[in-house]
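Researcher: Go.
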Amino acid sequence: MRLLPQSLFGRLLLFLTGGLVVAQLLSAAILLQDREQALYHAIGGHVAQRIAAIVELLDTLDDSERRRLVTALDLPPTRISLDLPWETAVEPDERYHTALFRGLLKRQLGPERPFQLEINDDLPPPPPPAERPRWLAQDPPPPPRDWADRPPRWRRHAMMLGLRNFMVQVRLSDGATVTFQQMFPEEVIAWPIRLLLILLVLLVSVAMLAALAVRALTRPLAVLAAAAGELGRDIRRPPLDENGPLEVRRAARAFNTMQERLIRYIEDRNRILAALSHDLKTPITRLRLRTELLDDASLREKFLTDLDDMQRMAQASLDFLRGGEDSEPIASVDLDALLESLRDDAEDTGRQVSLVGTTGQPLHCRPLALKRCLTNLVDNALKYGQRAEITVTDMPTRLTLSIRDRGPGIPAAELERVFEPFYRLENSRSRDTGGTGLGLSIARNIARAHGGELTLRNHPQGGVEAVLELPR
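Model: Structure:
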């Protein structure tokens, strides 16, 4: 998916952090749910005891004394009224909180005491109380009478926790009705900041530990990938340190073993190439000397031509086999000077080579190998396209060289096949049309030995364009 991070570290960290966040949210939801139930048990039990005590006291008083007592007890958060009629249309409410509070009330009031309970967000406020005595004149002002008048933050917290206003109506022994309306104070239902802060600290701590653990696990992979990338440039780079967890040590040991085998293979191949080069030169030289002894000039010329072709093919084959070797040391090369020398050499023979663009800094490469690669590409463009146009594009991470000719182009199906050894588009192998067909193969081998790539494409305005990309 495009939205996922590209690195293994980013993906593992995303999955672990996402799992931790989900786990913490679920834990917070469970804790808040338990807190809500504990609040209902504690607050509901206290309110039920207070209602039962007030009802028991009101049963022993006459009407005037009841009203004086109700006026004195009508204080927030519990409002008391004797003037509201008995609500007969209250629908049964089987929600958890309602059933819990109903059970607490029934236990405190007794099974024979009639009462009804309603829990709702929109309960109407009780009527204004009668004038208070002077000794109550300094009481704090009553809370807002309507749920809608409550502060928005109070209502939001209460609704998230599931808390509600509730109204209780109880029948007294003489048939009178006393109404209790309870409003939860804000400090009771406020968010448990301390608990949420603890969960947040736990989440951040575990996320940081997960990030460190993931970094420690993925770092060896990054080191291994970097070493594999450098191996193409320098086969004799220092071996990897074989330390860390068992799997990391095994991977580093396998990589070092592979590097040693590659070095031995290249050294064996170099020795074989050196012996082959020496052994081929000796019989060709003997044949050339014997050819000079021929009396027939026409036959002698044919023999010499065949020997020249044989020597050129043998040398091209050896160059192709040496294309990927790294015996030449890496050095800083002024690529602008190298390209200008190639252009001057071509112009000295009457051929046209144009150069556009410059490099910003020297290139670290194997000078002779890179010169052979560029020479093959320029010669190929001059042979088949009459002229070569070199364009240099230098960027911080890579250097791109485009060599374009003005020839007829190459069929799209053949653009990749021309890199095969000894493959050519025409049947002729004469000196005039391009030799043995190994030039592009050698050039690509050299490019890949530098950690780069060589590709061919047909230019929209005609001709073939060879694109050489080299890493900085």
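Model: The radius of gyration is 47 Å.
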